Amino acid sequence: MIHVAAPVGDIFLLPGPEVVRTATEATTSIVDSAVKLAGPQLQSIVLMSSTAAVVDLPPKPKRYDEKDWSHGAAEFMADSEAFAKADPVFKAMTAYTAGKTMSERAFWQKRDELLSTGGNGANISFTALQAR
User: Fold this and answer.
1) Which among 58, 60, 65, 89 would be 20 to 30 A from 115, CA to CA?
2) What is the pTM assigned to this prediction?
3) CA 91 to CA 77: how far, in whole Å?
C-alpha cells in the first residue's frame, strides 16, 4: 500500500490545527484500515514523505537523515498569538508543513505500536520515501 496524499486544498480553508489533525488522522486511519482489511497479506506500507517534514527554513547545508524533523512550523503554530497575526499564505504553508511533519511522525508511531503488540501488524515493513 502507498500513501501519498496531504490536505493541500484545505490549507487555505481550514484553521491550522485542523489541517494538522486532518493530515494526521488520514495517515493513521489509512494504516489502520490497511492492517485490518488486508490482514496477513499486507507486507509493506510506503508513505511519500515531504521535505517539509524534515527541513526547517532556512535549511542547513547538511545531509539529512531519519533523525531529522522539521520543528519550526509546529512551534510557530503553538504560539497562537503570533500565528493569528501571520500572513494568510504563511499560515497556510506553516499548517501544511506541520501537518506533513506530524502525520509522518504518527506513521512511525503507528509502526511502533504494531511492533509492540505483535500479531499480523508486526510483520509489515514501513517505508517513507523522500523525492529528490
Assistant:
1) 65
2) 0.88
3) 8
